[in-house]
Each structure stands twice: as C-alpha cells, then as structure tokens.
Amino acid sequence: MNSEIKIVLVNTTHSGNIGGVARAMKNMGLSDLVLVEPKVFPSEEATARAAGANDVLANASVVATLSDAIADCELVFGTSARERHIPWPIMDPREMASIISTGKSKDSGKKIAVVFGREDRGLTNEELHLCQHHVCIPSVEGFSSLNIASAVQVIAYEIRMASLCVEQVEEPLQWGTKWDAPMANQEQLEMLFDHLEQTVLKTGFLDPQKPRQLMTRVRRLIMRALPDSIEVNILRGILTSVDKSIASNVKSSKELGE
Amino acid sequence: MNSEIKIVLVNTTHSGNIGGVARAMKNMGLSDLVLVEPKVFPSEEATARAAGANDVLANASVVATLSDAIADCELVFGTSARERHIPWPIMDPREMASIISTGKSKDSGKKIAVVFGREDRGLTNEELHLCQHHVCIPSVEGFSSLNIASAVQVIAYEIRMASLCVEQVEEPLQWGTKWDAPMANQEQLEMLFDHLEQTVLKTGFLDPQKPRQLMTRVRRLIMRALPDSIEVNILRGILTSVDKSIASNVKSSKELGE
After folding, report:
1. pLDDT (tens digit per residue) in B129-144
2. Can you identify the CATH homologous superfamily of domain A2-176?
3. Which of A61, A160, B52, B72 holds its CA 20 to 30 A away from the CA of A22?
4. DSSP string, A148-197
5. Shortest CB distance from A200 goes to which of B221, B230, B241?
6. What is the pTM of this model?
7. Residue extents of the structural domains in chain B
8. Is residue A16 within 8 angstroms of chain B, CB to CB?
9. Which class is domain A186-255?
10. Between A137, A145, A230, which is nearest B217 by CB?
11. Whole-angstrom Cα distance, residue B17 to residue B49?
12. Nearest chain A Cα to B163, which residue?
C-alpha cells in the first residue's frame, strides 16, 4: 500500500461517490483518503459502492478545510477541468505520475496530496491556489466533467503505472539533481505568503482596495519553483529585514514627535 | 467523435453502470456502445448516471451474442482481470492504445472493439478466445476488480491519450500551458537580481563581508520558475516600494539633522 499519497475530496455531495473513490483507490494500491466537509459520511451508499474497500472508508479522515487536509504535504496537485482566468501550469495525469514517482524515489517519506473538487463545479480558485500543480484529465471539450470516482480511477491508475514501470520521463530539475535541503511544506509556504502580504501592505505596494492579482501572481511564481526550506527562510529573512527598516523609520519619526 | 472504436459490454447486471460507461466514453470522445444481453436497458438509472451522455445511450445497440457484437471488427481486445488457466498474451491499456492508434493511422476505417465482461465474473474463457488481444488493467492482487464504468474510463482515457499523441515535448510546464505574458528575458532578470541585491544591502540582510550564498540561492529559485515579464515587474515593483519606504526614513532623519 502506498501511504505517502493521499486522495483529498472537497465537499463531496453524493455519498455513493465516496465509496466509488475508495474502491478505485484500493484497486490501485492507495489507502489514504481525506474528506473535507463531505455532505454525508459515513453512509450505507458509500459502503455499498466501495464494494469491499471498507478499510479505506474506515481509515478515512474528515477535516474542516482543505488547508487542514494538506498541511503536512510537500507536494499538492489540484485537479481542474476548467480554463482559469490566470494561466497556471497544467499537466496531464501522466506527467503528474512521473513527478510523483520521481520525487518518491528520490526522497521517500515525502507526503503528497491529489485534490478533487465538488461534483458540480470542481475546486474554487482559492483552493486551486493552495496547490502547486494543476492536473487536467484530457477529456473532450463540451463534455469534460468526469464522475469523481472515475477521475480518481484515472489518476490512481497513472500513479500505479508509473510506480510499476517507470522509464522516468523528464524529472523536475530540483529532483533530478541531488538537492541540499528538504522541500518547503504547505504551512511554510502559507506563512511566507502571509508575511509577504503584510509587508507589501506596509510599503503601500499592495492596495487593499485594488489588490489586482498581485498576490496570486507572486504565489504562482513561487509555487511552481517548488521552493526548498532554505529558500523560504531566505525570503522570510528578507521580509523581516524590510519590516525592521520600515519599523525603525516609524519609530524614529515618532520619537521625534512627528 | 471516434466512431471506429466500439465499447462492448457483455451481460451487464447493474443498469446504472451502463450509464456510467456512457458518460466515461463521451468524456473521452467515444460514441459507439454495444450491449450484449444487458439485464435491463434502457433504464432511468442508466440515464441518471450518464449525466448528459444521452446520445451515447440513445445510439447504443443491443445484440444477443458477443459474436454478433464484434462481427464487423478487425481488431478485438478483451478485458480481463483474472489470471487464466491457459496463459494468453496480456497487455496493459497503454500497449493496447498504442496498437489501436498505430492500426488506425495505418488503415483508417478499421473497426475495433474493446470488450468488457460481467460485473461479478468478467468474460468467460470462450468469450476471451474470440478476442485477439487480452488487456489487463494492472490493479493490485487481492482487490483487482474495478467498477465497470471505471474500467471503461481507464481504457477510454488511454485511447484518448494515444490519439492526442502525447509526445510531451521538452517544454517547461508553463510553456506547455498557454500563458498570458511573455517570458522575462535575461536582461530583465539580471536587472531584477541587481535591484534585489541593492535593496537587501540597504535593509542590512545582505552583509557584503559575509554574503554567504544568499544571492545565489535566490537567483536559483527565481530562475527555475522561468518567470514571465509581469511577474518580474511585480517583483521590481515590490523592491521599489521597499526602497521608497526606506528612503523616506533616511530623508526624514536627515532633514531633522540626525
């Protein structure tokens, strides 16, 4: 069983689908299911459609937010069918599986999540922004929405195929190369983005009335580089040094009675 | 729509599954469904699970035997989960898709069938012997039986991937995706790094006596994300706003005779 890869379902509406997902996971050797605010769970329908994958359902955890679900993950893939306003790198399930199996072989113990949205409208933009990579199953235009258990089946199948055969395709550079620091996790990244937001509010570059897409674009840039912990620490250090420079300004002005 | 490839279901028991199959097919651009003695068809359950793939259901044909279903086909793949008594060459869905897409390009008009058995026990040996090739989705031992709609989804997905002829070019991911701004050029990047260096010298974070690997690490992080022009402009904008916040500090101090 592959316990480093978790499947995360956000706000699943039809409880039968949760069972279908559990079955699809177990077929492909995945066991870690996380449900973010499901409408109903557990349920008889889920158990029926699980068709024997009761252990996956029994061990599933239920959490309140997507952030909770992925807090311990270093690599988060969000599934997406729609074109988005700001382009974000999109890969197909095979590329995703290649990254996962390469990452795992290089650094086992790395936690990975693949996130699936609501049956009717997928993940929100905010939720997708929590994911480093966006994965799209190449369905036809005009009828692009897969049943969620089918979508999990395709993703889980690709993960299994990659783990079975593996003539690894293009590795992401930071993993192809021996790296000198662990990847930053989701929590470190969110703290970085929060910090940056506070600092650019202070400098006046971010206007809360007109945020434009400032933070989204910076987030997209940083996330697709898959930063390591040292890099995040450096960026935090730069921000702290800026904060201090500004604070000493305010302080000295105040002391002088301005 | 791909009308040369038909999906054949033998003795399907749960009518909802027929709808799930129709949806999975339409998602992947397949339209030709043949039902060999289904238990119930048509049905409300099938229509509900088809989730809009009504045209696939409406055009489905119902026949009495597998031989009838595949009479006009030159290439027939039978899906199989179990090990059989007599060994038979078994391929995975990717090899199957490769054969199909090669065959199609060589001789278009060739009719192809992929055959799926009963939910509980698949195809009989006699039925499998009507198929030139046997395909097995590589599920885990001990829990190998996929839901039939999920199995069709995996097969149809592989056929579509092959037809899209995914020679995933060596492009960086963000270039594989349609992007909304040109990539930053080397000159813009160097100006960004110069600017950053000046700013972190001012904030005191970069100590010219002990530069460590600060600039190298930031450069590596930014460069591997392959930033676009808008992103570089945003980073420059942030630095300029920081510069101004610090300058106003120095200026007000000087004006006050410090």
Report:
1. 888 888 999 999 899 9
2. SPOUT methyltransferase, trefoil knot domain (3.40.1280.10)
3. B52
4. HHHHHHHHHHHHHHHHHT----PPPHHHHS--SSPBP-HHHHHHHHHHHH
5. B241
6. 0.75
7. 2-163, 173-255
8. no
9. mainly alpha
10. A230
11. 7
12. A138
